[in-house]
Amino acid sequence: MVFSSRLISARRFATSAIRRDGGPQMPGDNLPFDINNRYKLTVYFILFFGSGLVTPFLAVRHQLLKK
């Protein structure tokens, strides 16, 4: 009896998970930014990674110019 109730609950979970899926999605639909415009994406990448690379240099410059 316990086994059959586990099987039924597992079946309900599986069908509800399939139902919530929402159908087929294109690659990149779950990203927080648009990947269809390559120039906008390039600018975003340069700004994002560039800000991380330039921060230590700006901090050193600030410390050297401080009196």
TrEMBL record:
Q: Which domain of life is it from?
A: Eukaryota
Q: In which pathway does it act?
A: Energy metabolism; oxidative phosphorylation
User: What are the alphabetically sorted keywords of the record?
Assistant: Membrane, Mitochondrion, Mitochondrion inner membrane, Transit peptide, Transmembrane, Transmembrane helix
A Gene Ontology biological process annotation?
mitochondrial electron transport, cytochrome c to oxygen
Asked if the keyword Transit peptide belongs to this entry, the reply reads yes
| Regions crossing the membrane | 41-60
Pfam families from the entry? COX7C
Query: What is the membrane topology noted in the UniProt record heading this document?
Result: Single-pass membrane protein
Keyword Flavoprotein attributed: no
| Gene Ontology cellular component terms for the protein in this record | mitochondrial inner membrane; respiratory chain complex IV
Give the location in the cell: Mitochondrion inner membrane
The family this protein is said to belong to: Belongs to the cytochrome c oxidase VIIc family.
Protein name (record): Cytochrome c oxidase subunit 7C, mitochondrial
